[in-house]
Amino acid sequence: MYSLKCFAVLAITYVITVLGSHICLSEPAVTCSCQLQWQLWQNGCYRLTPSRHSWDDAKKACKDMEGKMAAPRSIEELKFIVEMARKVDRDYVAWIACNDLEVEGTWKCDGQEGREPFLAWNTQQPDNAGNQDCALISALHNDRMDDARCQAQLRAFCVRQAACTHLPTQPRQYCLSTDTHGRLLNSTCLLDHNIREFITQGVAACGSACAKEPGCRSFNIKKTEEGKKVCQLNNSTSSEDKDKFQKTHYFCMYSEVCFG
Ligand SMILES: [Ca+2]
Ligand SMILES: [Ca+2]
To answer: Which residue range or ranges hold the C-type lectin domain (predicted)?
Structure first.
């Protein structure tokens, strides 16, 4: 059992104040926006390609629109793109950036390297019927994934970074995990969600880096054998992936960035 305790860190002084049972807000104080025809979700902008393409050409089509082909990383993201697609076309069929071109049966998704890819297959899929190596999501497949021949002509889900502005006046908070007695957990971290790591000064510097990094949802501070602190930026949170919130045999502190 663990809970999150929030610490307010004032941007100017970097003084850490314990706020006790302060509620950790999950909505960050950032405003993001997308260009016309793109739909905002978290800090990304999404849309379907206007025309149909083979999987390879669809990738280029997304790139031509200054985005890349999307591959949902969570059930929430999947739900969002599915609802978006249904508004455009009730019977939509669209590529996502996952394939098993390299090794038959081993699916890889763009942007999900170094972790188990998020795969939400429809029942009885993937079936590789007639050699199908590219993944799509369609209304016909219950808004779930199917493997299809990469040459099929379909629309595609594209994603690009939203334009986000952090509201500067609000103090940032860092929510550190504690046990049921309120003691800080210093050997429990969120594993396998690391998007970037580097040597850091401490919580404030690492949290500040997380707040600036697109896609950073939480961070770990672990100590190396030489006593250096390493800041690891994570693309998920302990509540989203409870299984990966694990005890470590080294000093490791988990924290989330919130805005109070
Ligand atoms: Ca296949
Ligand atoms: Ca199939």
So the answer is: 41-159
> What is the 146 CA–ligand 2 centroid distance (Å)?
5
- Give the Å distance between the CA of 125 and the centre of ligand 2: 5
- pTM across the whole model: 0.57
How confident is the model at residue 167, as a pLDDT?
Answer: 66
Distance of CA 93 from the midpoint of ligand 2 (Å): 13
Verify that 124 and 180 share a domain, yes or no.
no
Instruction: Tell me how many domains the chain contains.
Output: 2
Ligand nearest to C-alpha 134: 1
Q: Are the C-beta atoms of residues 95 and 55 closer than 8 Å to each other?
A: yes
What CATH number corresponds to the domain at position 217? 3.50.4.10
